[in-house]
Amino acid sequence: xxxxxxxxxxxxxxxxxxxxxxxxxxxxxxxxxxxxxxxxxxxxxxxxxxxxxxxxxxxxxxxxxxxxxxxxxxxxxxxxxxxxxxxxxxxxxxxxxxxxxxxxxxxxxxxxxxxxxxxxxxxxxxxxxxxxxxxxxxxxxx
Length: 142
Prior knowledge:
This protein is 49% helix and 13% strand. It is of the alpha+beta class. The protein has a three-stranded antiparallel β-sheet. α3 (56-66) packs across α5.
């Protein structure tokens, strides 16, 4: 339980490290130091990941759709090695955010659900990947 609470606090973007003597967190993009135009405690920098995409299952869905025009529900289920319920919950969140579209049709008497990445979803994935690359660079530079 303590781990969950600590992780929650660390991801809230408080602007100060927990248990670190109150020191300010460095921003990945610009250091977040004295010369930064970023306000202390802002959601920019290392803590401003797109939480919708950052979750493992949703990142997998968006990534798979980024390299495929469309994928059926069963294709995604097989790729992600997950259950119907788990996939539908995560796909719905992405659909609600307009990151993916869902089209339901019939092939004969069989229902067919297809997903496609939207332009908004592609931009969100590109921003997420850029952010992760910046985090990796900043970590390697230390």
